[in-house]
Specification:
349 residues; alpha/beta; Aspartate Aminotransferase, domain 2; 2 domains; 7-stranded mixed beta sheet
């Protein structure tokens, strides 16, 4: 039986110390091979069934997040799905968001001037839900610094006030065990912690489809897509597939394999692995007399004032991010304690 370590080492062999998953992931070898096969087959005029890959990826994401696949839409962008949700809100509806949250989650609401968008500190989101709040939109983990939202408190407050919840899991899906059934809408890109190629995103909607109007529905949104190619779509899909956007097929050919690997590894094991590395880094920083920004329980660690060292680190073969002047390191399943120690060694000079 393959262990976590052997599974990971069979799929990843980075040539540097890659600690930047919060920006974009490393791709598993099986994913690279699947995309290569799909491309070569298309070039030969014998395309593989990449629509089957879309359905397999949808089903895998559903299992990873604990919902039936009929509640999962497949697309390419969180911003598009936020726009879909924003378009469904009545005039004057209040949307509660967190300060500094990622633009794909919040900006589409600001594009409707008839909505009331209220912004509060992340830690105050739950207590700020009030009568008249229609929707609470928040990232499960903050992109800039890794802080986790108190999703259980936010969910409870929203239910108490009759508000819907919308969670962006782009910085959480893949390492954080997530019960998507607990929220009205959950969206996530897949090129970060889910280790998929760019061009893959998912949206989870309620069983009743959440009162959303599929304003960008095309032929792939039909109950019978191949009979929906001309003129108005005669019958929309009875499931969340009505919210599909035309898929980036080659990306989904790879995504199927990435999500398959994540299911084999298990999110709970990935969670424990990632947090152990992040905590090792935090402890090492304190040993250097440096205090990271607080983000307990997160594999994303931001260090104030060190963002300018990103280029130096890159030259030394260590890849991290510079976010608002902070050095941001993110630790995922393909990283090792040696990667953490290498980063600390370079930072120590």
């Amino acid at each position: 039986m393959e262990t976590f370590e052997t599974l990971v080492r069979a799929e990843f062999a980075p040539k540097n110390t890659y600690l930047n998953t919060a920006s974009t992931c490393l791709l598993p070898e099986r994913t690279v091979q699947a995309v290569r096969t799909a491309l070569e087959s298309a070039a030969a005029g014998q395309s593989t069934d990449m629509f089957a890959d879309v359905e397999a990826a949808r089903a895998s994401f559903a299992r990873l997040t604990g919902v039936p696949e009929r509640r999962v839409a497949a697309g390419a962008s969180v911003a598009v799905y936020t726009g879909l949700i924003a378009a469904s809100l009545p005039e004057g509806a209040e949307v509660l968001t967190a300060q500094g949250d990622f633009s794909s989650l919040v900006n589409p609401f600001h594009m409707r001037p008839d909505l009331k968008v209220r912004t509060v500190p992340l830690e105050a989101v739950a207590e700020s839900v009030r009568p008249g709040t229609a929707l609470v939109a928040v990232s499960a983990a903050q992109s800039a610094d890794g802080r986790l939202a108190d999703l259980s408190a936010i969910r409870a407050a929203a239910r108490d006030h009759g508000a819907r919840t919308y969670v962006d899991a782009s910085q959480a899906a893949g390492w954080l065990p997530l019960d998507a059934d607990a929220y009205d809408y959950v969206a996530s890109v897949a090129f970060k912690w889910l280790m998929c190629p760019w061009g893959v995103a998912f949206l989870v909607v309620p069983e009743d489809l959440g009162g959303l109007t599929p304003v960008f529905a095309g032929w792939v949104s039909g109950e019978e897509p191949w009979n929906s190619c001309y003129g108005p779509v005669p019958e929309l899909a009875h499931s969340a597939r009505r919210f599909d956007s035309s898929p980036s097929l080659f990306s989904y050919a790879g995504a199927r394999r990435s999500l398959e690997l994540l299911e084999e590894l298990g999110v709970k094991r990935v969670h424990a692995h990632d947090l152990a590395l992040a905590d090792r880094f935090r402890a090492g920083l304190r040993g250097l007399g440096v205090e990271p920004l607080p983000s307990p329980g997160s594999p994303i660690v931001s260090v104030p004032g060190l963002g300018a060292r990103r280029d130096e680190l890159s030259r030394a073969g260590v890849e991290v991010s510079d976010r608002a002047g902070n050095l941001r390191a993110s630790f995922h399943l393909y990283n090792t304690p040696a990667d953490v120690d290498r980063l600390l060694d370079v930072l120590s000079g």
